[in-house]
């Protein structure tokens, strides 16, 4: 695993917190278009981090206002982007369900994204790590090199 | 507005059931104890053993959990023993403590009593409290 790059852990927490708040607001307003917008924003963030709305808000608002302090540590950004991609896929499915009239399914899918993001922010439980570990221990994933 | 509330109810019930199931798993692991591991890993003068379950491809194990454990060892030198365990190799050991993910940490007292099982990353403060060494508050940003 390449460890040359660095990741701002505060930016990740900021993004996850924003996702939780966004989905709660969308649910409170019963506004599917907000979920659609979030799905698009997450997909953009996963595919092209430099155009990420979350990064923009973090760099242009949260940091200058002193709301948060950056904590940059050596890390591989790929798993974080993958997680955002998975979140975008869930929210895209949620959007689809909401617009075809399967409201409960749509809001459950969006709620799962919010719950997993909240769990990571509050309890440090990484859903991607959980899935990776469960697949790897069943031998469904090829193991990486020792000490990678 | 009815659909979001119904979805919230479904998710709340699912979360409650999951919480109960996890609690039962953890209670079982806490009851079993780990005297055999203490004999193997723990020095006489050390106050606690922390098993840190990891895996080769686990990024947070290296970037978040390892620095936290290093900080804990530096803060309380000689008081704790940290042993890293590859959860994919030591699957029986991981199953014994009901490990669900990596990183996970298991805090074991000198008498072999399992004090805590943390599925997911655990902060310095949390580990220090579980070990019983929560003296000065941490200010190291981990």
Can you describe what's shown?
- The complex is a heterodimer of chains A (148) and B (142).
- With 148 residues, chain A is mainly alpha-helical.
- Chain A has helices at residues 9-29, 32-47, 53-62, 77-99, 103-123, 127-137; strands at residues 6-8, 72-74.
- The longest helix of chain A has 23 residues, at 77-99.
- Chain B is of the alpha+beta class and 142 residues long.
- In chain B, 49% of the residues lie in helices and 18% in strands.
- Chain B is built from five helices and four strands.
- Chain B has helices at 2-32, 35-41, 59-75, 91-96, 124-131; strands at residues 48-54, 80-86, 104-108, 114-119.
- In chain B, strands 2-1-3-4 form a four-stranded mixed beta sheet, sandwiched between helices.
- In chain B, strand 1 (48-54), helix 3 and strand 2 (80-86) form a beta-alpha-beta unit.
- The longest helix of chain B is centred in the first third of the chain and has 31 residues, at 2-32.
Secondary structure layout plus pairing:
The complex is a heterodimer of chains A (148) and B (142).
Chain A: E1 6-8, H1 9-29, H2 32-47, H3 53-62, E2 72-74, H4 77-99, H5 103-123, H6 127-137
Antiparallel strand pairs in A: 1-2
Helix pairs in contact in A: 1-2, 1-5, 2-4, 4-5
Chain B: H1 2-32, H2 35-41, E1 48-54, H3 59-75, E2 80-86, H4 91-96, E3 104-108, E4 114-119, H5 124-131
Give a quick set of tags describing it:
heterodimer, A: 148 residues, two-stranded antiparallel ribbon, 2 strands, 4% strand, B: 142 residues, alpha+beta, Glutaredoxin, four-stranded mixed beta sheet, disordered C terminus
């Amino acid at each position: 695993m390449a460890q040359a790059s660095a990741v701002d852990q505060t930016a990740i927490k900021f993004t996850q917190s924003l996702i939780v708040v966004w989905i709660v607001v969308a649910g409170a307003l019963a506004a599917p278009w907000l979920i659609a917008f979030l799905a698009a924003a997450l997909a953009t963030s996963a595919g092209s981090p430099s155009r990420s709305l979350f990064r923009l808000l973090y760099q242009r608002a949260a940091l200058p206002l002193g709301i948060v302090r950056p904590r940059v540590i050596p890390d591989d950004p790929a798993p974080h982007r993958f997680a955002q991609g998975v979140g975008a896929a869930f929210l895209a499915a949620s959007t689809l369900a909401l617009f075809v009239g399967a409201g409960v399914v749509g809001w459950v899918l969006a709620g799962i994204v919010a719950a997993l993001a909240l769990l990571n922010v509050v309890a440090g439980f990484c859903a991607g790590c959980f899935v990776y570990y469960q697949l790897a221990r069943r031998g469904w994933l090829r193991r990486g090199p020792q000490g990678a | 507005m009815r659909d979001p509330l119904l979805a919230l109810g479904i998710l709340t019930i699912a979360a409650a059931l999951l919480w109960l199931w996890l609690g039962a798993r953890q209670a079982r692991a806490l009851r079993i104890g780990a005297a055999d591991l203490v004999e193997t890993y723990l020095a006489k003068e050390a106050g606690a053993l922390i098993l840190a379950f990891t895996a080769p491809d686990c990024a947070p194990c290296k970037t978040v959990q390892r620095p936290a454990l290093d900080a804990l060892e530096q803060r309380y030198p000689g008081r704790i023993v940290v042993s890293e365990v590859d959860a994919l190799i030591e699957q029986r050991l991981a199953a014994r403590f009901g490990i669900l993910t990596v990183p996970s940490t298991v805090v074991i007292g000198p008498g072999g009593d399992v004090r805590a099982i943390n599925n997911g990353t655990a902060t310095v403060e949390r580990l220090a409290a579980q070990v019983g060494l929560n003296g000065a508050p941490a200010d190291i940003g981990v």
